[in-house]
Amino acid sequence: MDKKYRKPLYGIEKKKVQKKIDRNKQTKKYKHYQKALQETQSEEKTLEQPAFLKNLLENAEGVEKEDGKGIERSKKSDRFGKVVREREEEDRVREELREERERDIARQKKEKAGARKKRKITTFLATKKTSRGQPVISSKINLLLGKIETGAKYNR
Question: Scanning 84, 103, 111, 117, which has its CA 20 to 30 A from the CA of 130?
Answer without folding.
Answer: 117
